[in-house]
Protein backbone atom coordinates (compact mmCIF):
# COMPACT_ATOMS: atom_id res chain seq x y z
CA UNK A 1 0.00 0.00 0.00
CA UNK A 2 2.81 2.42 0.91
CA UNK A 3 4.62 1.63 -2.35
CA UNK A 4 1.48 2.34 -4.39
CA UNK A 5 0.95 5.64 -2.53
CA UNK A 6 4.53 6.69 -3.25
CA UNK A 7 4.19 5.81 -6.96
CA UNK A 8 0.87 7.68 -7.17
CA UNK A 9 2.50 10.77 -5.66
CA UNK A 10 5.34 10.64 -8.20
CA UNK A 11 2.81 10.28 -11.03
CA UNK A 12 0.94 13.34 -9.77
CA UNK A 13 4.19 15.33 -9.71
CA UNK A 14 4.92 14.39 -13.32
CA UNK A 15 1.38 15.19 -14.50
CA UNK A 16 1.54 18.65 -12.89
CA UNK A 17 4.39 19.59 -15.23
CA UNK A 18 1.85 20.07 -18.01
CA UNK A 19 0.16 22.82 -15.97
CA UNK A 20 3.25 24.29 -14.33
CA UNK A 21 4.14 27.94 -14.64
CA UNK A 22 7.85 27.48 -14.01
CA UNK A 23 10.58 25.02 -13.16
CA UNK A 24 13.38 25.77 -10.70
CA UNK A 25 16.22 23.69 -9.34
CA UNK A 26 19.34 23.94 -7.23
CA UNK A 27 22.25 22.02 -5.77
CA UNK A 28 23.99 22.03 -2.42
CA UNK A 29 25.10 20.05 0.61
CA UNK A 30 23.39 18.74 3.72
CA UNK A 31 24.29 17.35 7.14
CA UNK A 32 22.21 14.66 8.85
CA UNK A 33 21.64 12.88 12.17
CA UNK A 34 19.80 9.57 12.56
CA UNK A 35 18.90 7.25 15.44
CA UNK A 36 19.09 3.79 13.90
CA UNK A 37 20.94 2.49 16.95
CA UNK A 38 19.33 3.27 20.35
CA UNK A 39 21.38 5.65 22.52
CA UNK A 40 23.62 6.49 19.55
CA UNK A 41 23.53 9.15 16.86
CA UNK A 42 24.52 8.45 13.27
CA UNK A 43 26.22 11.39 11.58
CA UNK A 44 26.32 11.96 7.84
CA UNK A 45 26.49 14.37 4.97
CA UNK A 46 25.61 14.40 1.31
CA UNK A 47 25.09 16.29 -1.92
CA UNK A 48 21.59 17.47 -2.75
CA UNK A 49 19.76 18.26 -5.97
CA UNK A 50 16.44 20.12 -5.55
CA UNK A 51 14.16 20.17 -8.63
CA UNK A 52 10.72 21.72 -8.16
CA UNK A 53 7.70 22.66 -10.24
CA UNK A 54 5.96 25.90 -9.24
CA UNK A 55 2.26 26.47 -9.78
CA UNK A 56 -0.36 28.93 -8.47
CA UNK A 57 2.36 31.58 -8.77
CA UNK A 58 2.13 35.26 -7.90
CA UNK A 59 4.91 37.82 -7.43
CA UNK A 60 5.01 36.99 -3.72
CA UNK A 61 3.96 33.33 -3.34
CA UNK A 62 3.76 29.95 -5.02
CA UNK A 63 2.96 26.34 -4.37
CA UNK A 64 5.51 23.81 -5.52
CA UNK A 65 6.03 20.09 -5.77
CA UNK A 66 9.60 18.88 -5.69
CA UNK A 67 11.83 15.90 -5.06
CA UNK A 68 14.87 17.05 -3.04
CA UNK A 69 17.29 14.17 -3.69
CA UNK A 70 20.23 13.58 -1.34
CA UNK A 71 23.13 11.18 -1.98
CA UNK A 72 25.61 10.80 0.84
CA UNK A 73 26.76 8.65 3.73
CA UNK A 74 26.07 7.94 7.38
CA UNK A 75 28.65 6.88 9.95
CA UNK A 76 29.17 6.41 13.69
CA UNK A 77 28.45 8.67 16.64
CA UNK A 78 28.89 8.34 20.41
CA UNK A 79 27.01 6.15 22.83
CA UNK A 80 25.30 7.39 25.98
CA UNK A 81 28.38 6.82 28.16
CA UNK A 82 30.64 8.86 25.90
CA UNK A 83 32.70 5.91 24.57
CA UNK A 84 33.26 5.93 20.84
CA UNK A 85 31.55 3.11 18.99
CA UNK A 86 33.27 2.37 15.70
CA UNK A 87 31.35 1.70 12.50
CA UNK A 88 31.74 1.28 8.81
CA UNK A 89 30.32 4.01 6.61
CA UNK A 90 26.94 3.44 4.98
CA UNK A 91 25.84 4.90 1.64
CA UNK A 92 22.62 6.97 1.94
CA UNK A 93 19.81 7.99 -0.44
CA UNK A 94 16.91 10.22 0.66
CA UNK A 95 14.17 11.14 -1.84
CA UNK A 96 10.94 12.66 -0.48
CA UNK A 97 8.18 14.16 -2.63
CA UNK A 98 7.44 17.56 -1.03
CA UNK A 99 4.54 19.99 -1.36
CA UNK A 100 5.79 23.43 -0.29
CA UNK A 101 4.26 26.84 0.22
CA UNK A 102 6.86 29.41 -0.89
CA UNK A 103 6.75 33.10 -0.05
CA UNK A 104 8.88 36.20 -0.63
CA UNK A 105 12.22 36.08 -2.42
CA UNK A 106 12.79 32.86 -4.35
CA UNK A 107 9.11 31.85 -4.29
CA UNK A 108 9.09 31.88 -8.10
CA UNK A 109 10.89 33.50 -11.01
CA UNK A 110 8.43 36.39 -10.71
CA UNK A 111 9.41 37.17 -7.12
CA UNK A 112 11.10 40.51 -6.48
CA UNK A 113 11.79 40.23 -2.74
CA UNK A 114 15.25 39.87 -1.22
CA UNK A 115 14.25 37.49 1.60
CA UNK A 116 11.77 34.63 1.45
CA UNK A 117 10.96 31.28 2.92
CA UNK A 118 9.08 28.03 2.55
CA UNK A 119 7.35 25.36 4.60
CA UNK A 120 5.96 22.04 3.51
CA UNK A 121 5.33 18.34 4.01
CA UNK A 122 5.44 15.19 1.96
CA UNK A 123 6.17 11.48 1.79
CA UNK A 124 9.40 9.83 0.84
CA UNK A 125 11.89 7.00 0.51
CA UNK A 126 15.13 6.53 2.45
CA UNK A 127 17.88 3.95 2.03
CA UNK A 128 21.16 3.41 3.84
CA UNK A 129 23.50 0.50 3.17
CA UNK A 130 24.31 -1.77 6.08
CA UNK A 131 26.84 -0.48 8.57
CA UNK A 132 28.18 -2.29 11.65
CA UNK A 133 28.38 -0.68 15.07
CA UNK A 134 31.04 -2.29 17.24
CA UNK A 135 33.04 -1.61 20.38
CA UNK A 136 36.29 -2.90 21.85
CA UNK A 137 36.42 -5.28 24.80
CA UNK A 138 39.17 -5.16 27.48
CA UNK A 139 41.47 -7.12 25.16
CA UNK A 140 40.86 -4.62 22.31
CA UNK A 141 38.90 -7.13 20.26
CA UNK A 142 36.17 -5.62 18.11
CA UNK A 143 32.70 -6.86 19.04
CA UNK A 144 29.80 -6.14 16.69
CA UNK A 145 26.94 -4.60 18.66
CA UNK A 146 24.43 -4.21 15.87
CA UNK A 147 24.21 -4.02 12.08
CA UNK A 148 21.79 -1.42 10.76
CA UNK A 149 20.61 -0.35 7.34
CA UNK A 150 17.94 -0.92 4.74
CA UNK A 151 15.11 1.05 3.19
CA UNK A 152 12.04 2.75 4.58
CA UNK A 153 9.15 4.97 3.53
CA UNK A 154 7.44 7.61 5.59
CA UNK A 155 6.36 11.22 6.11
CA UNK A 156 8.69 14.17 5.73
CA UNK A 157 8.64 17.88 6.56
CA UNK A 158 10.86 20.84 5.78
CA UNK A 159 11.14 24.58 6.27
CA UNK A 160 13.68 27.24 5.53
CA UNK A 161 14.60 30.61 4.13
CA UNK A 162 15.91 31.94 0.83
CA UNK A 163 18.07 34.99 0.11
CA UNK A 164 17.71 36.31 -3.44
CA UNK A 165 20.92 37.17 -5.29
CA UNK A 166 21.73 38.65 -8.66
CA UNK A 167 20.42 41.68 -10.51
CA UNK A 168 17.12 40.04 -11.48
CA UNK A 169 16.77 38.18 -8.15
CA UNK A 170 15.86 34.96 -9.95
CA UNK A 171 18.62 33.05 -8.16
CA UNK A 172 18.82 32.49 -4.41
CA UNK A 173 20.73 30.90 -1.57
CA UNK A 174 18.60 28.49 0.47
CA UNK A 175 19.00 27.32 4.07
CA UNK A 176 16.78 24.36 5.02
CA UNK A 177 15.82 22.27 8.05
CA UNK A 178 14.29 18.87 7.31
CA UNK A 179 12.82 15.87 9.10
CA UNK A 180 12.02 12.36 7.86
CA UNK A 181 10.28 9.57 9.78
CA UNK A 182 10.87 5.99 8.60
CA UNK A 183 7.93 3.73 9.35
CA UNK A 184 9.64 0.32 9.12
CA UNK A 185 11.09 -1.72 11.99
CA UNK A 186 13.96 0.75 12.56
CA UNK A 187 11.55 3.64 13.27
CA UNK A 188 14.13 5.96 11.77
CA UNK A 189 14.22 9.64 12.67
CA UNK A 190 16.42 11.60 10.25
CA UNK A 191 17.15 15.27 10.99
CA UNK A 192 18.86 17.45 8.41
CA UNK A 193 20.21 20.92 7.86
CA UNK A 194 21.44 22.04 4.47
CA UNK A 195 22.22 24.85 2.11
CA UNK A 196 21.81 25.11 -1.65
CA UNK A 197 22.14 27.54 -4.54
CA UNK A 198 18.94 27.69 -6.61
CA UNK A 199 18.99 28.84 -10.22
Which sheet architecture does the biggest sheet show?
A: 8 strands, antiparallel, barrel
- Overall pLDDT: 84
Count of distinct structural domains: 1
Radius of gyration: 19 Å
Report the order of strands and helices. Answer: HEEEEEEEEEEEE
Q: How much β-strand is present in the residues?
A: over 45%
User: Which parts are unreliable, with pLDDT below 50 for 5 consecutive residues or more?
Assistant: none
Relative helix content: under 10%
Which class do the helix and strand fractions yield? mainly beta
Task: Tell me the number of helical segments per DSSP (H or I, 4 or more residues long).
Answer: 1
> What overall geometry do the principal axes of the alpha carbons give?
elongated
- For the biggest β-sheet, the strand order reads 2-3-6-8-9-10-11-12
Number of strands: 12
Distance between the termini: 36 Å
Organism: Chitinophaga oryziterrae
Protein name: Outer membrane beta-barrel protein
Keywords: Signal
Signal peptide: 1-20
Write structural notes for this entry.
Helix content is 8%, strand content 61%. With 199 residues, the chain is mostly beta strands. It has one domain. The chain has an 8-stranded antiparallel barrel. The protein is elongated, with a radius of gyration of 19 Å. The mean pLDDT is 84. Keywords: Signal. Residues 1-20 form the signal peptide. This is Outer membrane beta-barrel protein.
Amino acid sequence: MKKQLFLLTVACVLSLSAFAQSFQHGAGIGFYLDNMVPDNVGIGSGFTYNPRINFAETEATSLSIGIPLTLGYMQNGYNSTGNLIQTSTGFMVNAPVMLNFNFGGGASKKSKGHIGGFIGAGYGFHYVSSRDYYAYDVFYNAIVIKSVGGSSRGPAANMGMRIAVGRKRTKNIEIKLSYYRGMNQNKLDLYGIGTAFNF
